Amino acid sequence: MDKQFKELIHSEEELRTLIGFPSELVKRKMITYLDHNCEEYISKSPFLVISSSDQSGNCDVSPRGDMAGFVKVLNERYLIIPERPGNKRIDTMRNILANPLVGLLFMIPGLGETLRVNGKACLVRDNELLEQMEVKGRKPLLGIGVEVEECFIHCAKAFKRSGVWDPNSWLDEKSLPSVAKILFGHANLPGSSTELIEERLRESYTKRLY
Prior knowledge:
With 210 residues, this protein is of the alpha+beta class. It is built from eight helices and seven strands. The longest helix is centred in the C-terminal third of the chain and has 14 residues, at 194-207.
């Protein structure tokens, strides 16, 4: 890494000299439980990303999304995320088995401020809980339970700078990257094609969401 980047920072002291220190509001905003404000935010959030790492510290981040309120707050210390059908890589779940520490970032479309929740996760097969998260007659095979250790609001600067919620900043459909083309180039699957991958994606998105 030293060969690629110059003038690296090697200590928090150096970092603080450059960045400075947080305000009293920022230092005091973190709580260790889900209060009614956090519960309301989560109830209106249709999307989150979850970060995890394995026992060696190799990191991963993965999206989770469904109808607003799909994450169930059980009480001020615990929540559960339904695990809907995916690509079966199970990266997040394998990581949780090796290292339970996770970070969650909840988002609400149109709102720049996000909700960050950090804690310990486990994989849950509690049928009574899973039935409460059933959609279209299908309950999740399992859920990701999280014991909350830290919870706080993150400011909107990144969203304001990026304009991510502003439709005027979005690319037109023809300018968007072709996901099928990317997958075709990365997978290099014999007998495949961009068109076949596009059809496979279309079928997955219309028939296998739940």
